[in-house]
Amino acid sequence: MGTGLMFAPSAQALDKWGPGYSIPDSSGHAGASHLGAYGEPGSLFKGIKGHGYCADPQLAGPNPNGHYSKITEFATWTSKVTGKQISQEDYDAAAFMLSWRGGTTDDFQAAAVDAALNSVVNPGTTDALPNGKRALQRLSYPSVPSGVKGRAESLLREARKYSGHYKIHITVPKGLHPGQHAAIKLDITSSSGHRLPGIPIHLTGSGAASGAGTVTTNSDGVATADVTPATTGALDITATARVPSSHIYAQVPSNPGSQRMLVAGFSDRISGTAHVAVTTGHQGGGLKVTKIAADSHTAMANVQFELKDGHGSIVARGTTDTRGIWHTDGIPAGRYTLHEIKASSGYQLAPDRAVNIGDLAPSTVTVADSPIAEQPTPRPRPITIHELPKTGA
Length: 393
What we know:
This is SpaA-like prealbumin fold domain-containing protein. This protein has helices spanning 88-100, 107-121, 133-140, 147-162, and strands spanning 20-23, 33-36, 38-39, 51-54, 72-74, 167-171, 182-189, 200-207, 211-216, 222-227, 233-244, 248-251, 261-263, 267-278, 285-293, 304-308, 314-319, 325-331, 334-342, 353-357, 363-369.
């Protein structure tokens, strides 16, 4: 891209200028204009890299002694036809087409790009689709295939949809564990929020999973990659991609009355990183105990419980609240015994309960205490007291 494009065509054998078609100029001079790109495989300028498109169709090319400047990035673009700066939407569309569609050696494609570009760098003029007189005239010559106009209109729609500044998104499922496969979703969105199809995305992992690979977004603009962490700890997943350029590049002629050349083929590089924690898969869970009276089904407060592990060690202890609930969290996954250590007055202790606590899944237990059964009132027994003999000195 570093070699400058030399000059725009004069009334020569225009098929030598690059991909596209020889057409009459606006005055009707046969073969005096060109619809398409300038550069290889054109034979007049050997060694030129890349392709350029005329930005100012109503201006002439420089004289044979003229030349173009180095390729320059333009943050904004002003039409020499209207004298006005084009909108951001038109700027983005031009950058997209130059970057993604303009670097072609195909005559049909180059002609369509030329027609579409003029419609956004010179909007509302005779050179712009959909209704510009000269734009339609250029596409109607017998040397131009009838489908070029439709292709140019399709390029404009595509550019409106997919142009702009791009963002890469990495969606990682929750709960990554060592040795388990996880599907990561990736997409790249344009300024309008549309996902870009057909974009290769390079992935690298570091930390709990290392390695690299490349996936490509499908027709819906989504790519899927599988990752299998090797160990626990932090995992960084970085995605990089080449996307259409968000900038216009051009070469300016030394002759200010000559056409500027829009340069095709640039792209931008974007990246994004997701930071993920890989865990053992045994984070533990919680236990919720609801205490009720077996006879009235009402909540019972101030009932004390202990939770014991398989070795009989107490891992949690608590008391039910006014709603009859005791809740504890952060219990490692496993099998436990729930033991009631103090019941409400008038009620029996409930028998021990086996409790399974799963990974990140709360366990719920309802414990019912039965009232203490009333004991029958003892009946008095008759007692006969015999008179004891007197004792004395």
